[in-house]
Structure formats: structure tokens, C-alpha cells
From TrEMBL:
The gene is dgoA. This is 2-dehydro-3-deoxy-6-phosphogalactonate aldolase. Pfam families: Aldolase. Keywords: Carbohydrate metabolism, Lyase. InterPro entries: Aldlse_KDPG_KHG, Aldolase_TIM, KDPG/KHG_AS_2. Homotrimer. Gene3D superfamilies: Aldolase class I (3.20.20.70). It comes from Roseinatronobacter ekhonensis. The lineage of its organism: Bacteria, Pseudomonadati, Pseudomonadota, Alphaproteobacteria, Rhodobacterales.
Amino acid sequence: MREIIAILRGITPSEALGVTHALIEAGITKIEVPLNSPDPLDSIAAIVAEFGTHAQIGAGTVLDAGQVPSLAATGARLAVSPDCNPEVIRAARAAGLLSYPGVFTPTEAFTAIRAGATGLKLFPAFKMGVDGLRAMRAVLPPDMPIYAVGGVGPEDFATWRSAGAAGFGLGTALYAPGMAAADVGARARDAVAAWDACA
């Protein structure tokens, strides 16, 4: 599985299935709908029902443990956050979800790991840079995956992977509200090609 998480911020339920189909067809099979999108749980439930056996689907911008039960009820498998909240991490793991909290410092990273995080979302990655990731990677458990998110695009994959990134979260590099599914698919194919070139 390619470690690229598509971030569909702002997507509507009516767009969700077409865009998701385009992403999966291109080879991206980790997809999140941020909870600050229109009717996000409706989109997530529809995507899970249609594509849940072909992809890992979940929510982004999960900020409160109280959001986890309704997310889990959709059949989602991912809970992604911009921050490191141990309560959210523990709630997600207890509900059987994979948890990817946002971190920016070693303190936040180790807090997330101790709370049971599945992987770490380095956010905003462009502010830390590859040198910062390389330094953090040196002290973190080698089997803890780090996803670079924020200001990182397919053209940067090789550099970030050489510094220790296990994967990436792509937002506007893949999708912007109102974008046609065919255009999302074209961007997704470019991202997949960049991933495969440095795999």
C-alpha cells in the first residue's frame, strides 16, 4: 500500500464517491474527510459503504474524544488530527481505529506514542524541514511511521523519504473544493508516480 493519505477538506457528500473512485483508481487507498467539511460523517459513511473493502477511510481534524464514537459508527478506520491529544488517541484506539495525531516536537511525538498512536503526522512539515525530521527521526522508535503533511508535494517525496518520512498527507496537492473527479485523478496519478519512483 502506498503511504499517501488523501485529505479531502471541504468535500461534499455529493462529490465524495466520484472523487474517491478517482483516487483509488489512481492507486491512493488512504483517504480522510476532515470533520470541518460539509456533512463529513455522511461523506465518510457513503465512502465506507462503497469502497471500504478497497481502501482505508476515515476522518481528519478529529479534535475531541467525543467525536470518535460517531466516526467509528460509520465504519471508518482512520482518525487523523492536527494536534496531539492523548484522549483522542486513546479513544480512537479503543474504538478500533488507527490514530494519526499531529506532532511538531519530540515531546509531542513521545506523548503520542505513549498514548498509543499508530503513526505520527508531522504538521506543518514545511516549517520543520527535512533537517528537523532527520533529527527527530534519530530519537524516535524506528518502527514508528511519520507522515509529512503541510507544504509537501509529490516533487518533494524523495527528499523527505530520505530524511525518514514513511508517507505523506496531501491536501490541495490532490483536491480543492469543487474540483472535478477527473482532475483529482490526474493529480493522484502524478503523486503515485512520484511515490513509485522513490519506493
